[in-house]
Design a protein that fits this description.
It contains 15 helices and no strands. With 386 residues, the protein is mainly alpha-helical. The radius of gyration is 21 Å and the shape is globular.
């Protein structure tokens, strides 16, 4: 029998601490990452760029730009990207699974309580305190990513236009492609002095699922389709679910759908774990597992397929300029989301004070955002509404 190669064994052993770090980091993030994709991405920037230094600001921005160009949940795809950057294919799978798993477990517990008790868990006090900290975390990320994304005044102008377009309700994908196209065309003109006409891609969602009796296979295929074609936020997901599961298939009532989306919004981790809640309502534990796997599988595939393209994009002058524009557009979308969320988070003097204190601590110290979230949750339960 041939002896194992000592060099390969040493390499395998060397990967174990990295995989452990990935597992622990993303399990923790999946447990405390409240606030939606913008907040999740901000936490990842703080953890993996500023604290652990697993990647540079530019690498982080390039990954963020790439995730915005493919369907699926951006924060989950960022976790998958970071895992691959740190430990290759094993890291890619482990980071994604560990980021999703805590949210899946929490949402499944909420679904169990919903089915057994017929009502939603009461988390208003906790969310009252946490939401202002989420705003502060996103502001910190914007502050730190700004110098890497806005490299000159022209990109800054593109960013301002993108913020305005997003606030006016512009399509997320068109804002990103528009920012990238403007930057790429301007770069080409500056090098060739020739005008170039850019075409804006138009994407259409997949066909609506026909009415059918409920089955686990039908559930799997529906959420696989959603994960493969869905761009945008949890509110876009709501439109898909309303059109198919409520209006056409009649698998859910309107009230059940709104409760499912609410649980996905108020629990930590990816908003797409709304699928976990729906799967549990329709098919119990098996349905929850199937729906969750189906909606996230495309993200792993898309990230794995797009990973080799990122360095090529950065290596080409024209594609690099396009990616610079997309990065500025992504930052602009984060800023627009932050402004919108602020209206719901900063509702009185108490929340303004919590948000301001969190922002100051994050910008001026190296405090871990986990402690701020925990403290804010306690304050939210105890503090008077001023």
């Amino acid at each position: 029998m041939a002896l194992a190669d000592p060099h390969r064994l040493a390499q395998g052993a060397a990967l174990k601490p990295e995989l452990r770090e990935i597992a622990v980091s993303f399990l923790r993030l999946g447990t405390i990452a409240f606030g939606g994709p913008a907040a999740h991405i901000a936490m990842m920037e703080d953890e993996f760029v500023r604290r652990r230094r697993w990647l540079s600001h530019q690498q982080f921005l390039d990954m963020l730009g790439a995730t915005n160009l493919i369907p699926g949940p951006n924060s989950t795809e960022m976790a998958i990207h970071i895992g691959h950057q740190r430990a290759g294919w094993k890291g890619l799978i482990l980071a994604g699974v560990c980021f999703i798993a805590p949210a899946m477990a929490i949402v499944m517990a909420a679904a169990w309580a919903y089915v057994r008790l017929g009502s939603m868990p009461q988390v208003q006090g906790v969310m009252y305190g946490i939401k202002p900290v989420v705003i502060a975390i996103v502001i910190q990320a914007l502050w730190r990513l700004y110098p890497s994304a806005v490299k000159n005044g022209f990109l800054g102008a593109i960013g301002l236009i993108a913020v305005v377009a997003a606030l006016l309700g512009g399509n997320v994908l068109m804002v990103l492609f528009g920012a990238g196209a403007i930057a790429a065309i301007a770069s080409r003109i500056s090098r060739t002095r020739a005008a170039i006409a850019g075409l804006m891609p138009t994407l259409k969602a997949g066909a609506i699922v026909a009415p059918a009796a409920f089955s686990l296979m039908g559930l799997f295929l529906f959420f696989l389709k959603v994960g493969a074609v869905l761009y945008g936020s949890g509110y876009v997901l709501l439109a898909f679910l309303q059109a198919d599961l409520v209006a056409r298939m009649h698998w859910l009532t309107q009230s059940q759908l709104l409760d499912a989306v609410a649980v996905g919004q108020v629990t930590p981790g990816p908003v797409f774990t709304t699928a976990t809640f729906i799967g549990y309502l329709l098919g119990g534990t098996a349905g929850a597992a199937i729906a969750t796997a189906a909606i996230f599988i495309p993200s792993f595939v898309f990230v794995a397929a797009s990973r080799p393209l990122i360095p090529r994009l950065r290596g080409s002058a024209l594609a690099g300029a396009f990616l610079d524009g997309v990065n500025v557009g992504a930052l602009a979308l984060m800023a627009a989301v932050t402004l919108e969320l602020s209206r719901a988070a900063l509702v009185d003097l108490t929340t303004v004070l919590i948000g301001a204190a969190a922002a100051i601590l994050l910008l001026l110290s190296r405090i871990n955002s986990t402690w701020l979230i925990a403290a804010a949750a306690i304050i939210g339960l105890a503090a008077p509404r001023i």
